[in-house]
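Pilot study result, target chain (297 residues):
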Amino acid sequence: MPESAGTRLSPFAELLRRAIRQRGATLERLADHLRGQGTPVSLATLSYWQSGRSQPERAVSLAALRNVERYLGLRGGELAGLLDAPRPRGRLAHRTPTAEPMSKMWPDARSRHRALDGLGPRDETRLTRLSIVSRVEIGPDRAERRQWTRHILRAEEDGVSSIVLLFWADAQPPPILVPTRNLSVVALNRDEDSGLAAAELQFPRPLARHETIIVEYEIEQVGTVPATNHERRTRMPTRELLIEVRFDPAALPARCEQFSEIGDRHLVRPLTWDDSYTVHALGLDLGAGAFGIRWEW
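Predicted structure:
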């Protein structure tokens, strides 16, 4: 199980412990409630969660966490939004990477908490990611100019009305988020320390259970810093993830590769561009982790 760093409680453990105390609950009563909801969690595991010794990571634990939030009177996703990235398991957990490290790592829990503060429900299990397509354009100055993204989502319960998006906005000036299909911006936050931004994007109407929706948005960049990768990180399973990066013919990279860090599997594959100077990476049935394309100039 992932160990907490130092003696200070993580934001997740802090909130869980405080919510249990304010509810006047005990771990025994919480365990009984979860058992009755069909998402049992042992007393020992609950104790580890509130002490920071471990956190929910597997799908069954994340489903139980949703019932924990409801029992404790928290908003959907309030605890889940504070979870740290799953740590690699098995023999690859301590390996020395052979490739260069990614320029953007999974944001830490405190940065996410500050960026997400005040936004609506963040329970990721309420929406299934059936398909994500992301297209990136790199200009002749090697900087990212535009990113277009399309999601096909399916509601897993009645009344789902929004999605929360996390993205980096540490460039100067910050990028501009533009909803283009079936979305409107409800709120937009930015954590000044890390440059992490969070946006609550609302659907035209609440979805019914098992209803699907196609949403699209763009992120426009106006900076001049050379880009070196595009990646997507997620905690929830994704059926299909397609990433395309189009380079200006006046500025082609020296080397380009696809990478993925899903659970304990770390894979790298070289890529070559097609006649439109575009490379692409396709991931199917991805679990929690990172998937993307990186390049060298």
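One observation from the pilot: The first helix runs from residue 11 to 23. A full batch analysis is planned for the follow-on phase.
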